Structures are given as structure tokens and as C-alpha cells.
TrEMBL record:
It comes from Chloroflexus aggregans (strain MD-66 / DSM 9485). Belongs to the AOR/FOR family. It comes from the Bacteria. Pfam families: AFOR_C, AFOR_N. This is Aldehyde ferredoxin oxidoreductase. Residues 1-202 form the Aldehyde ferredoxin oxidoreductase N-terminal domain. InterPro entries: Ald_Fedxn_OxRdtase_dom2 (IPR013984), Ald_Fedxn_OxRdtase_dom3 (IPR013985), Ald_Fedxn_OxRdtase_N (IPR013983), Ald_Fedxn_OxRdtase_N_sf (IPR036503), OxRdtase_Ald_Fedxn_C (IPR001203), Tungsten_al_ferr_oxy-like_C (IPR036021), W-dependent_AOR (IPR051919). SMART domains: AFOR_N. Transmembrane segments: none annotated. Keywords: 4Fe-4S, Iron, Iron-sulfur, Metal-binding, Oxidoreductase.
Amino acid sequence: MPLRSLTVDLARGHARQLLPAEVERDYLGGRGAIAWLLWYQLEPDTPPLSANNLLIFATGPLAGSSGYATGGFTVGTRSPLTGGIAYGWAPGHWGAALRRNNVDVLIIRGEAPDWCYLLIDGDTVRLRSARHLVGRDTVATAATLSAELGGDVRVLAIGPAGEVGVAYASIVAEGQYLVEPAGTGAVMADKKLKAIVVRDRAPLPVADVARMQSVLQSIQQRGERHPTANAIRAIGSAGLLPAAIKLGALTSRDARTPADGVAIARMFSEIARRGGRQERGCAGCPLPCYIDLRTRTGETHPLPSLELIAGFGARVGITDADTMLAIADRCLRLGIDPAAAAAAITFMTEAQDEGLVRQRTLNWGDGAAVIAALDRMSQRQEKRDILSLGVGEMQEAVWGSAAFAPQVKGLAMPALDPRALTEIGLAMATSPIGGDYRYAMAFEELVAEPPAWLPPPASGPRETEGKALRLIWHERFAAVLDASGLCRRLGLMAYQVTPGELIALLSAVSGRTISGADLVRIGERIVTLDRMFTRRYAANSQDTLPDRYLREPLSSGPTAGYTPPLDVLLAEYYARHGWDSAGDPTPARLAELGIP
């Protein structure tokens, strides 16, 4: 069935239409539809921060059904950080609610004359003033709109950081789920769109309920006895933290020295033991991977994620539990991407160490200064705070900093060190969204027993054999998960969904027959369009890593003396994709995929 789109021009009105049938056939939906729309319908050379840029929210065919782990969404745009393609992801209930309102793809364009929010309620599509919401954090915004409109609405909002122009501002779903990585929140803010509210409705019908339930039961039973799934169920993405510490993937002082893994583990253990635990995630999911904790003062804060701990705990050096909880809460409420914020603060601290920036405002391990910096950058100021720019632009402003700036293509690198994790390093270097490995969700090096359905051969974290092939598998499977509407954390971080099970779910829910070959081609088309978009539009589309990771091995710890052989890895990666030696898709490959 053709995908149903709703286009809202914030200055002119809205329109519903069906996308061409080949979009659903060749790209399925969700992220696939976003890739198609950005490639074929965004006007060439449209500036990221302009009225003509498209901000696209999409769900897949599984979203809105009664199946678990199908409530999230993907959002894409042209990135203000890289100039290339940007994606963000979040779980929860908002994506399911959008599709239950007969919208597969929501396209936002234009710029509102004043701050507004969008309400979607069945056939009603209305823009309303958000002047009373300006300055409110994401949690307060969600609570206010729920109180005004009823408890059956799902709210997506930006916080104060977006309002004042922080380049790595995040969107937050339901006051609970950060949209990560960075890029999309700044575009939403530029359009003066404070929130998008969708009224939830009954689950959508399923073609074969018995088959869907059988597949979901199989996934649930596997997860109940799987150690990785149990670790993520217990403490979220931080379930991978012990492996990262053991492998030396956490480094400190902007990756100059091994991190104190014992101190970080002790700090997180103290956090995880706190009372008032509340699990949350997509409706009915047997792997609720987001957790709230009640603090000593009675407040509820989100349990810090792997990226937040690696960034602020290892890179910046903060090992106080209360401070870490406060940072996690600030990022959520202010609407700030944690990985990008940690990278910016890390970069500025080293730039001050090196004498490249005169004024000293940050020191390693100074939690009070970090919290003050997050608060300061989220307040309107006469002169813009350099920390609000993002590492890519900060590097350009600070002469002599390129070798150590933790960014690729302009997007911040999360703090897992590529000298310890070769596949993650290759993912950082090649990702079309910039230096964030979550584009491909290639976490296998942190998993004790990677699933048997990954392509052979398996190899150790600091070996090269098989890394290019297995990264390509992750890229494509992440793409089809996002196009399907099934949670990428369940499917890849926890490795609990086989490709065959995804095919069976798609068939059971939609009635559409999809073969394994079809699924591979859909994933490859999405990845290829992402690649082509960034190669065409990004200010710097080079696949590389900062010199620190390529030429400066650590002198101690598990990774001492090792740097990833990126040139060798890239040559195989390009060849296996069917791209030329420069990393561009060849005409023959494009013809094979049906991409004109």
C-alpha cells in the first residue's frame, strides 16, 4: 500500500498525499522513506537552517500495531552540523501514535512566524501558539500540553537549548526519550516549532495476529535467557559498560590516557543501586531499556546511558554519582545530545590545556563547571557561547586543534575509543551522518557471544578480519529495522531479532510478502542514498578519524601500542559495497539497485 504522507508548511498550511508506490516497494517506509524524500525532493543546496529544509518524521509498517517494540520513530533532515544527512532515533509511543492517525511520513517545511506547536488528531491538523511554552524544559512542556489536551496525547518537544540555537540540540519524545544523535533538534528549533502533539488511538489491525504473536513470543523467550538482553534489561545501554571497561574502550582526557575503569564502574554501581527504579520503553516490550531512578532529594532522574557515562565519566573525568545523575537530567530537560555535549566540553578543556583558548572555564573532572556550562549554553546571551557550536565548528574556530577534535565530518564522536574497537572505529569513519557508530549499531565487539546469524568470520576487537563485511551487515540491518518500525535496540544492541523473524513480522502485520533478498536490497538502497546525499552535500565527506586515533597509540592499558589500520579497512569496505576506490557508489551498482 502506498505510504501516506502529511506535509505541514508552517507558513502556508498542510496537505495529505500518497507517496509513489515504488517508495514503499523499494524502501519499505520509516527511514527508507526519509532517505528517498531527502534525495529526490529536497531542493539541491538547500541550507540546513532555512525554511526550505525538510524535517521528516517517519514510522514503518510495524508501528502502531499491537506488537511490542514498535512505538518509536526515525527523524531525518539535512544536518546543520555536517551539511550531509542527519538521522535521529527514539523509542516510546509517539511513533505508534503518529501512524494510528493515518500518517506514515510527516514532512515539516517552512518557518513559522512565531513559536508554535503542531496538533495532529485524526483529520484535525492544527498549528497553535507555543508562546506560553517558550523557555520551558522538555519534561515541563510535555506535562503542560498533556494537561491542556488530555492524557491520551503523545508529545514531542525541544527544550531551551534548541530555542537559543545550540547546534546539537535534541528533540525529546514524551519528556522521556532523547532523540539521538544530534542534528535534527536544531532544525526543528530553526522552524520555531516547539512541539508536535499526536493524539493516541487504538492499535491498527494486523493481517495475521497468530503469526505475529508466535514470532514475538520466540523473541521474548530468547531474550529471557540471553545474558546481553538481561544486562540491558537491568541497566539499559550501560549493560555494555563492563565490556567497554575490560577492553580499554574508555579513555580519559580527550583520549590521551586510559580511563580509570574501576572508578567509573564504582560510580555507576552506586547509581544503579539507588531506589525508586521505574522501567520504561515501548508499550509491552519485554526488554524495557530505559530506567528512571529516584535521587536522594526525591527527584526522578534518568539512569545514565553508555554514551553519557563514556563521555562525561571517562572523557571528562566525572566520577561522582550525584553529578552524573544531574548531567543526565540536564541533557534530557534542556534537550541536549549527551554525546555531542561531552565531546564539546572535552575538546574545549584540552584546547585550554594546550593554550589555544585563553580563558580557563573548564577542568577535568569538575562536575560543577560542566553543569554550569550546560546551563549557560541553554540561556540566551548577547554573545553566543562557543560550546553551543558543536565540535566540528569549534575545531574551525580554534586554530591547531584538528588532530584532537573528537569529530568526523562535523559530527561528534561518542566516547568509545576506536583504538580498542576496530569495527566501531570503521563505523565512526564511514557513517554518512558523521562520526557516530549508532548509525549502524555495530555493538558486537562489546557482546560476549555475538549472534550466529552474523556473516563469518568473527574476529577479536583489535583484529581486522571480517570487520568490513560485518559492519556492512549491521548498516543494512539497522536500515531495515528503521524502515520497518521495529526497535533498533532490541534488534541490534541486544541482538534479539533474526532477519528471518523480521521478515515474518512484516508479513504477519502487513500481509506483504518480503524475501530475504528483498530485505537485503532495501537495506542497501537506504545506505546507498544516505552515502550519496552526504557525498554530495557535506562540507567534508572524508572517511577518516582524527589523527589522535590513527597516529597516537596509548602507552598503557589493553590497547597499548595499537591504532586501527583504517586504510586497509576502507579498501575492503568500499570493495564489498561495490563502490569505487574513492568510496563512491558506481553506476553499475546504482543500476543494480534501481537508483536512477
